[in-house]
Amino acid sequence: MEIKNVKRVLVKFSGEALAGDAGSGIDLEILKFVANEIRQLANANFEIGIVIGGGNIIRGVSAAEGGIIRRTSGDYMGMLGTVINAIALQEALEYLGLDVRVQSAIDITEVCEKYIYRKAIRHLEKNRIVVFGAGTGNPFFTTDTAATLRAVEIGADLIIKATKVDGVYDKDPNKFSDAKLLKTLNYDEALRDHIRVMDDTAIALAKDNKLPILVCNMFKEGNLNAILTECSGEYSIVS
Ligand code: GTP
What we know:
Elements: E1 8-13, H1 16-19, H2 28-43, E2 47-52, H3 60-63, H4 71-95, E3 100-104, E4 113-114, H5 117-125, E5 129-133, H6 143-153, E6 158-163, E7 168-169, E8 181-182, E9 184-185, H7 187-190, H8 200-208, E10 213-217, H9 223-230, E11 236-238
Parallel strand pairs: 1-2, 1-6, 2-5, 3-4, 3-5, 6-10, 9-11
Antiparallel strand pairs: 7-8, 10-11
Helix pairs in contact: 2-4, 2-9, 6-8
The structure holds guanosine-5'-triphosphate (GTP).
Guanosine-5'-triphosphate binds near residues 110, 112, 113, 122 and 126.
């Protein structure tokens, strides 16, 4: 796939990324940093959809571990967590002067719009950033799957899995000093246990719809923009 032909992107990053050293909640400095990275993409005229995880607020699976909270309820709590993150990012992006709409898969119209894919596309066409909250609106699905689903629905050219590492390695770079970054790999390779770019459902959905996945580090200043505008820097592409 050619990065230079990309116009519409869906950026996915984890909620934990917003927590910083505290491990939970929202670190305002990190929120500002992330908003600045997104602003660079907006200034470069990319149409941008965003999905943020909710792990900094609550994770459904972990909440259910003690047996008190049922998994389904835990997952719904997690979905509400993603809406909190979406609103926070909307505020941070608007503070930078960008136009942003939040759409939630769970109806909470006092807080934000509900998810309507045709409206999301109109917002993108009008150069508004759309932040998709509440996952898919269903328990048992990850926010990676939600991001892939939204990317396919809005006709994104690319889903960007923004992480804390430079891309996908042939082996664990924390354990092996000779681990090599894989510039390209296919969907089946991305599904392998030791790689697992995203969960199986998300990768299968991307594969079925030929949606390329770009894995990169969003915590290097300017990296996201450099990759998309100049194809420079380290990253991996699954296609
Ligand atoms: P256009 O139709 O292109 O004018 O889009 P727009 O989003 O500017 O217009 P709209 O009148 O739909 O929205 C105006 C503002 O209200 C925006 O900030 C929306 O995010 C917000 N808004 C729209 N629908 C809802 C909703 O159902 N709930 C909440 N809380 N806000 C909404």
